[in-house]
Amino acid sequence: MPAMRIVVLVFLVLIVASLASALVYLVRDRGTGTRTARALAIRVGLSITLFLLLMAGFASGLITGKL
C-alpha cells in the first residue's frame, strides 16, 4: 500500500472523527458552546490540508492514477 494512500486514509478518518465530535458537542451543549464551531473549524482545516496535499502529489508526480 503506497504511503500517499495511507496519508489520505488517515486524513479522511480524522475528518470524519472531527465531524462526529462536532455532532456530539452540538447535542450535548445544545448549540450554546463554542466546541462545535471549533470542531468544525478543525474539520475544514483538515479538508483544506488534504486537498493541498493531493494537489501537491499530483503536481509532483507522487500520485499518477487512482489512489
Description:
The protein has one domain. Helices cover 79% and strands 0% of the residues. Helix 1 runs antiparallel to helix 2. The longest helix is centred in the first third of the chain and has 27 residues. The N and C termini lie close together (10 Å).
Task: Give a short overview.
By secondary structure, the protein is mostly helical. The chain has helices at 3-29, 35-60.
Structural class: mainly alpha
Which range best describes the helical content: under 10%, 10-25%, 25-40%, 40-55%, 55-70% or over 70%? over 70%
Biggest sheet details: none
- Give Rg in angstroms: 15 Å
Question: How many alpha or pi helices?
Answer: 2
> Terminal Cα separation, in Å?
10 Å
Number of strands: 0
Mass-distribution shape:
elongated
SSE succession: HH
Mean pLDDT: 89
The parts where pLDDT drops under 50 for at least 5 residues are none
